[in-house]
Specification:
- The chain contains 11 helices and 13 strands.
- The chain has helices at 16-22, 46-54, 66-78, 95-109, 124-139, 144-154, 167-172, 178-187, 210-225, 243-254, 269-275, and strands spanning 4-9, 25-27, 30-33, 36-38, 60-62, 82-87, 115-119, 158-163, 189-195, 201-208, 234-239, 261-266, 280-285.
- A hairpin with a 5-residue loop joins strand 9 (189-195) and strand 10 (201-208).
- Helix 3 (66-78) crosses helix 4 (95-109) and helix 5 runs antiparallel to helix 6 (144-154).
């Protein structure tokens, strides 16, 4: 009954040790920096990646194609396992469609196997939190269909709250105007963003000053958590090479909620290429995204 595997991609920003420990399959986006392409085999340490960005390097990214997804899926099918894949948000990338194409092709070749590709509508450790919660249900004994149904029913309860330190990276990605980026830099304006129900990154507010932007994430958590306030025991935080501030944010959340499971990890290079150094993101389960 439990002969299936959960898979995802590296935009979930989970530690590599987690994938290995829980036998979760992962496919990897690549990025290009200073004219050189980096893949899983030669990814830069995140500190070096962000150091290059701070020095002016502008990385670009490419989505996972169907061939790379096939390379992830097919070995599991040959082992007789079904696949439940939790994909990076279709609102931010075309990778979900690449996964669907690969799944359709492979199910024709392996008609006795089952592949389901779920659009997470999530990013970074929001996607990672969805993977974590799904894997926990799998390890508790839930079957393929039960876990897939749970994901579809609850994926919009994964709340994403972001802020960034430098608006120019959002300007490059078309998230804010050039004028907003210039004025924001001059006035020390920090945007507050979230991932909406369509899986898109949307500005929802702004404050002046870095510390205020971190505290605003906690304030917004209070408004979005709703009926989950008493049962909230897990938060995930991802950061763009600013660990101390991430720990500050975690401490502020724990002043209000009984958190027993906490994961702080880097924003990986693929998402970090668009959000930049100093990105801070808070993820939890709530009533309203």
């Amino acid at each position: 009954m439990n002969n299936y595997v959960i898979t995802t991609d590296n935009n979930a920003d989970l530690p590599e040790e987690f994938y290995k420990e829980h036998q979760i399959g992962c496919t990897y986006f690549s990025y290009t920096l200073d004219g050189k392409e980096y893949t899983k085999e030669n990814f830069l340490p995140v500190e070096e990646f962000y150091s290059k960005m701070r020095a002016g390097s502008m990385p670009t990214t490419s989505q996972v194609n169907p061939e790379r997804v096939r390379a992830l899926f097919e070995p599991y099918l040959k082992e007789g396992k079904d696949i439940l894949h939790i994909a990076f948000s279709s609102g931010l990338s075309g990778t979900f469609n690449s996964c669907r194409i690969a799944a359709q092709e492979l199910m024709e070749e392996y008609p006795e196997r089952k592949i389901r590709v779920v659009d997470s509508l999530a990013a970074s450790l929001g996607q990672g939190l969805l993977v974590y919660l799904a894997q926990r249900r799998k390890e508790e004994g839930a079957d393929f269909d039960s876990v897939a149904q749970w994901i579809e029913e609850h994926k919009k309860n994964i709340v994403h709250l972001f802020t960034v330190d430098d608006l120019n990276h959002l300007y490059r990605g078309g998230r804010v105007s050039r004028t907003t980026a210039i004025l924001g830099g001059m006035l020390n304006i920090k945007p507050i963003l979230h991932v909406d129900d369509e899986g898109k990154l949307i500005p929802i507010g702004k404050v002046r000053g870095r510390k205020k932007s971190l505290l605003e994430l906690v304030t917004l958590m209070d408004t979005k958590i709703g009926s989950y306030a008493k049962s909230c025991d897990t938060i995930f935080i991802s950061h763009g090479d600013c660990r101390e501030e991430a720990e500050f944010l975690a401490a502020k959340v724990k002043e209000k909620y009984h958190i027993t499971t906490e994961l702080i990890n880097d924003v990986g290079a693929v998402i970090g290429a668009h959000s930049g150094p100093g990105t801070m993101a808070l993820f939890f389960v709530g009533d309203v995204r």
